[in-house]
Amino acid sequence: MESIECSLCHRKFDDNTLLSLHHEYEPCFNSNDPLASHISYSCPICDKIFHDTLVLQIHVNEDHDHTSVHTTSDNLYAQELERRDRMKIKHQQETASAISYEQLEEQDNDDNDDARIARMLQEEENAQSFEEFQNRYGGSTRTFSERARWNLEKVYKKKFISQQKYDEYKNKLDEMIAQPVERMESRSTGLIQIISRLPMSNILDRRLCNPGCDHMSSTWLDQGWACGYKNFQMLLSSLRNDSQYSMHLFGHDATNQINDDIPSVSYLQKLIEKAWTAGFDSAGREQLNGHLINSTKWIGPTEIMACLANLNIKTELFDFHQPKTIEKSIAFKYLFEWIKNYFQQQQENRNNIIHPLYLQHEGHSRTIVGYEQLRSGQIRLLIFDPSTPKTNIDQFRKNPNDKIHIFRRTLQSFQKPVYQILVIRGLLRTEEREAAKQLRSIKVPIPNT
């Protein structure tokens, strides 16, 4: 097939559709521009590698047959961060260059107002295009309310919701954001029990976390930036079933559960800010400018650690670095072994309720709910990903044997340079509370090969 070349930046595309999408959503860089250096992007579902986000977007929508608006995952947005930063630098440089040129021209010709107005309008147009690109890839500085409203418009234009639903959501959008408990539309319950009943066939061992752990999908209300919050909610759904933690978190014991008492994203933002005010993670507070409420700022494991510590729950954060001397596709075998040991040790202690692990890596977070070891010795993880739409979860319920792959992840899919795992470790003693305000991580040593 003959490729089609962009007349502006000379990038080549397989068809006119990709070329038109490129013109609509991407800036044109000169091929000699250092800002245009190639970056690879991995599919958040099947981990195939791509070099163009538009191709990746179409691959996700077409090959994985996601009919919901939630097909674009937080992971896809995250992979644009580095590229977007370079774009911003380039935009600032071009703006500064244009201003310098304008000043020089004013010295030469004070009467050339038309040229100055033309450049000013072009700069405004460039800035607007940059903002639109940021919105597409989830990195703008819009508030929670503004981003939710933008998402709602997108959902409606793509005909994912009716006019009636659109009007209903639009009229009560602020109320939906402010509600303290998570909407049931995001939650999928009972999945651990279904997985536990699947046939073993070539599986030698399968270990799972607390059956009370729910899956939380991103919805149009918080799509594109809230993966950290969603994984926090998954962790909380497990803790609410454990009498050791439920009173600290929900004000009642595990035998007196309220089915819808998982905190919403906006309420978690308040809890994190409350932890900051109490003196937990002052460095993180400074990094996020001391403000989370009604923002679309991403959170990671340190914000969760601070929030839980303020509620007297102890956590540990472990760092796993990619060994340089091991082939990349199997570099994190020691991470998989560590996860296996965690679930085995927790299960051996019959007094323990096994809680999931919060997994963080560059640009995305997920929740590890267990593992399977094949008779061949291979380990694959069982992972709840907030970017998995609820429509896919419903398909799994109907046909779990054929759809279990949406939760399984192999060693070959772990390609990031660093992974972090957050573990629940009991309750903080009074004398430990002050030390817990300074967050630390533990680097797991790479085994000798």
TrEMBL record:
Q: GO molecular function, one example?
A: deUFMylase activity
List residues of the C2H2-type domain: 41-71
Q: Which organism is it from?
A: Adineta steineri
Name of the protein described by the UniProt record: C2H2-type domain-containing protein
Which Pfam family is one of those matched by this entry? Peptidase_C78
Family (UniProt):
Belongs to the peptidase C78 family.
The family database entries (InterPro entries) matched by this protein are listed as: UFSP1/2_DUB_cat (IPR012462), Znf_C2H2_type (IPR013087)
Record's keyword terms, sorted: Hydrolase, Metal-binding, Zinc, Zinc-finger
Specify the taxonomic lineage. Eukaryota, Metazoa, Spiralia, Gnathifera, Rotifera
Show the stretches that span the lipid bilayer: none
Can the keyword Metal-binding be found in this entry's annotation? yes
